Amino acid sequence: MTTNGGHEPVFCTIIPPHVLDKLAQSEDPALAGPARQTLERDAYERTHRRLTTVIGAPAVAPPAQAPAEKPHRTIYDARHRQDLPGKKVRGEGDKPGKDATVNRAYAGLGATFDLYLKAYGRNSINGEGLPLDATVHFDENYNNAFWNGEQMVFGDGDGEIFLDFTIPVDVIGHELTHGVTQYTANLTYFGQPGALNESMSDVFGSLIKQYTLGQTTAEADWLIGAGLLAPRVTGTALRSMKEPGSAYDDDVLGKDPQPGTMDDYVRTGRDNGGVHINSGIPNHAFYLVADALGGHAWERAGQIWYDVLTGGELESQANFSDFAKLTVAQARARYGEGEELQGVLKAWEQVGVATS
Hints:
Number of helices: 10
Oligomer: single chain
Strand content: 5-15%
Helix content: 40-55%
Order of helices and strands: EHHEEHEEEHHEEEEHHHHH
Number of strands: 10
């Protein structure tokens, strides 16, 4: 495991700022109000995360009573307030209750734990059995879900644009994967390293969904956040790995801005240098590798990406080309000169990222 200067957790949300900015400008107060409130809350949480990083947070150790290589989940209810973590409502091994949001959060944490353990031999997100905590029903009409470096937090959505953020299991997997990245490559959350950070979360979030559903590459929809958009929204999801830029085209949200190749790379100072936008390029490369290899994407394609993320050679400031070269090296090291290597080389060539 690489330290890359130490584990520096960042505040990572599933809904990009540019989407909330668009909503905040709406003339409809039912849309603008929750978006502005969410942006304000996110700004507070981001600052709080930065201060915690500077001051230092207490280390969280695996509980002594937790069985080896078993999840240790705790779900809290914020009761529409902003205090974290809230009231404990379900612990590891407790039976499902009447609150579907609590049950989905519990199941999603478990699905994420299962994928990392069973596919890659990783014991929780830090590799050492870290307890998985989540808070649901955060704030009023909160339009986001986030990993704050210590736990998951889910809003209920406003019901107008976004529904309950525990609905898509890949959203849960996405956010928890920010924790995996935090404990491994620790990719800087800006520019291309930040877009790689976001892409890692999309890749493994999608794999967690596919693993849970038992889907092959051909059966998967390759959408991030399907089921999260309310019925009034013209769109299918937050992002598409198969066809970046096609997830939504809505009067209120605008059009999905993600590029699929370097020809359309977006240069911007917003959203930490476009981390949620340009992640479409490495996302698409992963899809192309998985599609070329077929079968279950978490096996060969996922294994190559996991090897790079956790192998210790991926620098925190890595750009797309740096990452691509490492996937080529890992494909060759693990699988030789066969279709895996050729699939990786061709995928990066198709999206316009150099591997030599």
